[in-house]
Amino acid sequence: MKKTIQQLVVERILILDGAMGTMIQQYNLREEDFRNERFAHIRGQLRGNNDLLSLTRPDVIQEIHRKYLEAGADIIETNTFSSTAVSMADYHVQEYVREMNLAAVKLAREIADEYTTKNPDKPRFVAGAVGPTNKTCSMSPDVNNPAFRALSYDGLATAYQEQIEALLEGGVDVLLIETIFDTLNAKAAIFAAEKAMKVTGREVPLMISVTVSDIGGRTLSGQTLDAFLASIQHANIFSVGLNCSFGADQLKPFLSQMAARAPYYISAYPNAGLPNSLGAYDQTPEEMAEQVKEYIDENLVNIIGGCCGTTDAYIAKYTDLIKGVQPRVPVAKPDCMWISGLELLEVKPEINFVNIGERCNVAGSRKFLRLIQEKKYEEALSIARTQVEDGALIIDVNMDDGLLDGVEEMTTFLNLIASEPEISRVPVMIDSSKWEVIEAGLKCLQGKCVVNSISLKEGEEAFLEHARAVRQYGAAVVVMAFDEKGQADTAQRKIAVCERAYRLLVDKVGFNPHDIIFDPNILTVATGIEEHNNYAVDFIEATEWIRKNLPGVHVSGGVSNLSFSLRGNDYIREAIHAVFLYYAIQKGMDMGIVNPATSVLYTDIPADVLKIIEDVVLNRTPDGSEQLIELAEKLKAASSGETGQVVRHDAWRDEPLEERLKHALVKGIGDFLEDDLAEALMKYDKAVDIIEGPLMKGMNYVGDLFGAGKMFLPQVVKTARTMKKAVAILQPVIESEKQGDVKNAGKVLVATVRGDVHDIGKNIVAVVMACNGYEIIDLGVMVPSETILKRAIEEKVDMIGLSGLITPSLEEMVHVASELEKAGFDLPLLIGGATTSKLHTALKIAPAYHAPVVYLKDASQNAGVASKLLNPLMKPEFTKELAEEYQLLREKGKPVHREIVSLEDAQKNRLNLF
Questions:
Q1: Is the pLDDT of residue 757 over 70?
Q2: Residue 126: which residues within 8 A CB-CB, separation 6 or more?
Q3: pTM of the entire structure?
Q4: Which of 153, 418, 693, 704 would be 443's cystine partner, CB 3.0–4.6 Å?
Q5: In 10 A of CB 697, how many CB atoms?
Q6: What residues are annotated to the active site?
Q7: What are the Cα distances from residue 482, in Å, to 370, 501, 519, 521?
């Protein structure tokens, strides 16, 4: 019996064919070859419509298939790359789409079966080729109207379904959705494929192949590859990979990135190098084979083929390359939530708390409602942009208002967000009580979004229907603790409803538990009604049970609901939220819809005020509500009258200079930096001493608060922005102080590694080292390893510094170290950043690179360490001591001095700056 493609892929690397278009070009076909008598009546030129040749020159198409099979291909693609009504409309032959697809499959099927019969030990397979079309759902073709779309999701999905049904009926073995440049198009194709499989009753493996548009590794529509993987995570995928874009050499870094993250088989079919000035490909089959060999030797691929410029001569080189090679084993599925905008958000424990921006909600913001009503979308977008700048990791969008067309406004606003990279880099939460509005939003977003919300209030049937649809569109979901009896208010009711919903989602719908977010209802306290006094405690208790007993899920809630009874007193409301989050986060609440610009920290609340608020939130006394209302009135009477904040809140301005700078950093207040730094310049000898002194002290304090759970990530981001502003103010002074200093201590390349956009630590290091006579080559953020290596050689640097804030940065640093080793570098490597530690450096990074790899806890250490590494007399002793310390760490699993002893502890020191 013929082995299936699923069976063969675990036995050996499979070979895909090369470029159909390149082969067709060799036949020098004329207009009449494409037209024939049958299409004589079609207006316009048909030459170039290669898919039509399946009807007009089937002999050519079948001969091409034969050549690729002779060359050793296991899989041949149907000649259907553009065989959708959307693409064929340009040639006025859209009515022939079904016939074209059926004919193309028939040609490929016949020849593949012929070769399988000849050699049953090498079965041949037919892949139904599904191209991206010539239109995009994520971008506007009208520069003056960014909300406009030339093609709707529904229209594209319908066209794809027509094509895919014909491919399945014709008998393809797999479907290949390829050359993806817009993930929303791909999601529509996946949606159509799933529907077509149900209609035809044929389930076949689904291959996905994306193309990157630039050396940054993003798609044309702006997504990173990690974000792309999150967007398609819902589908039952056989393989994912890369095609087109570049030649094998240029494509390799992106392929390595994908192979390290994607829990699927990996495919790659690059171009034959880069095109010359005439658009032709000069790379020879031998040259391409040499580059592709690296894919195979490094275990990056399961399926290998060729794209633009490749012919059967190129494919023929692969057979020898794969002989005796063990196939790649897919990596494990991610054990956390993946959601995305243009960039990936991994919801891991170390994130501490995911702040969901609340201000793009017409039900919660009068200003936002007015702007939407008046069609002032630019101003409305600025609200979303500010939330992201203030640290929101997800943007909540709600258009539920009786006077608005929710479907139209949701569609318009999400389309506009797609044109704003600063906003669309984060995931979107589609927030509505109307299913038609939610569904409209799902059809606008190329990233993996979050639906808020579904519930059991209309019964199981409606709940399951909506849940299946959310999953099919590829979104995560918020489940409200409602059922047929109404809103769950007690801890017991919340637990019962959430447990029931979990079992339905996981057991009946097949939902990934990591994509489930429970909202057990944050209800208002301090209302004067005794039954409401325990609402916060009920939420916290339910949260703890949910996180312990429903594996994989997350817990969120609308935090502002808690203090609704105290509208008008912003300070008290923010203080209540800070107290509630302090306790709820400890019990497992890891998301929440809050104001990202909140300024009241748990540690800022005076002891007398804190006691009263905790009495209310934790329901510790029966008269807590009365005491809180009395306190609120007193504070309101004493307020400035401008923001509702207490006058004494500005008492910090009377503190000593160093305390003022520390307070400004911790609170993220930049209003007084100019004055305070001017005063500091009078006190300190050099501007850099201010950075290394009070500013660094403030940042270290922020790290302590964050590690103790008394600050959450958006507040840390706000702090980092303030630090950047302080450094920017001091920068001109630093430059002037350097004038006349001809000392050149060495040249240092610094970069934030690929996958990470954080740079405050790296920038501070650059400033400090420059002040110590070092020339700095700053490559910025999201820097791939190949760029680091290339620039290090070009600039002839003396050492390299790598920075990263997030956990994936750790893996990327190991990768960079490995690449430095393979390339024969001998430069010292400096490691720093929030998630880095001496233990991780000793266990993972240093073993990958023979030269010195030095972990640096903060910016003040860099210049001293660099001078030792560049001093031929001091370097041997320093590197010897370093090697001994790392060896002790590896043996004992703990540092010699008071350093971080585990990656968990590393999170408590997230702001060690590099």
A1: no
A2: 75, 76, 77, 78, 105, 108, 109, 112, 171, 172, 173, 174
A3: 0.78
A4: 153
A5: 14
A6: 756, 758, 809
A7: 31, 10, 9, 9
